[in-house]
Specification:
Layout lengths: L9 H8 L2 H67 L1 H28 L5 H14 L7
Length: 141
């Protein structure tokens, strides 16, 4: 295409007449608008996710209460059934000891799991590297 065949469009004419500072200003303004819109989108998505998570947590809480009642009534049934064989007093002791064993096993497992938690080692390491990254480097000799 030769120079005589090229017809400038209004966008070309504007680009030629606009200073570099004005163009940078427009880019900065557009970038700022884009970032603001992305932040708003993130807020809306976070609110929706939090609402769903809250409902899910409520359902799990309800299931936990229902499960507790199941265990309570099964324990009462076991207590009564054993009471027919060894007496109600001793059967209550047997059921209580069974639940004490379950509690001890769960507590031991939970304690070992909590001791194994390392936190966020990768994040902590990279955060410690940020100040050094921002410092100007001296040239090696």
């Amino acid at each position: 295409m030769t120079e005589s065949e090229f017809t400038p469009t209004p966008a070309h004419a504007k680009a030629e007449s606009t200073s570099l500072g004005d163009l940078l200003g427009e880019v900065t303004q557009d970038l700022s608008t884009l970032i603001r819109q992305e932040v708003e989108l993130a807020k809306v998505e976070l609110k929706q996710s939090a609402t769903r998570a809250g409902r899910g947590a409520g359902m799990f809480a309800g299931a936990g209460v229902a499960g507790h009642f199941v265990l309570l009534f099964l324990s009462l049934a076991l207590w009564y059934a054993l009471g027919e064989l060894i007496g109600l007093g001793w059967s209550a002791v047997v059921v209580a000891v069974l639940w004490a064993i379950v509690a001890a096993v769960l507590a031991s497992k939970g304690r070992s799991d909590l001791k194994a938690v390392k936190g966020m080692p990768q994040t902590a390491e990279t955060i410690q590297e940020i100040p050094q990254t921002l410092k100007p480097r001296e040239e090696q000799r």
